[in-house]
Amino acid sequence: MIAPEADVLVSLKKLSKVYRMGVQDVVAIGGIDLDIRQGEYVAIMGHSGSGKSTLLNILGCLDRPTGGRYMLGGEDVSVMNDDALSEIRNRRIGFIFQSFNLIHGLSIEENIEVPLFYQGVRRSVRRQRSTELARLVGLGGRLGHRPRELSGGQQQRVAIARALANEPLVLLADEPTGNLDTETGKKIEDILIALNRNRGITLIVVTHNPSLAGRMSQHIGLSDGRIYVSE
To answer: Quick one: how far is CA 113 from the chain centroid?
Structure first.
């Protein structure tokens, strides 16, 4: 897919990832090209072992490509060292996980604040930001609660708010409705869609959920580490 350079937020050029398994090389990502424009809502789909998780980990700067180039917001992150990648993760990327990954010993307010804490943001600013984001996802009255006191859908709302705390360039979500029932999953879909449509947030989502995928602007199919794109 070719997009105007000024609009490109994520650009992959001949990106590859190869793992060494004993005496064999296993190709997880096989030299893919992809541009994602700012403000797009993208679904990554494919069967187990197709390379979805590997691609998402590279996009999230949790793993490095073996070859090719990954540009994020005009920066070549594929050549960065560990410290620079950590900085990119903390300031430019928001993560939403299937299992929520909340810290159970912290309140909802404190969970949302975590990315800002690691950035050294002062407490008063963190509290203001967490309150705003809790209200945005419909949890303004639950700031003092702990994760175990919330339903699965409410915990995922907290995870979404936390992912937004650092005002990231892109939100990456790994099966965000995978642990939720159909009705609750639909509510999470609506929140994600609203973030994209109302705030212009770029979303890249790994999903097996046809309802969620069907509402996205672009579908990326992976099979054996190779990519095909359909509008």
So the answer is: 17
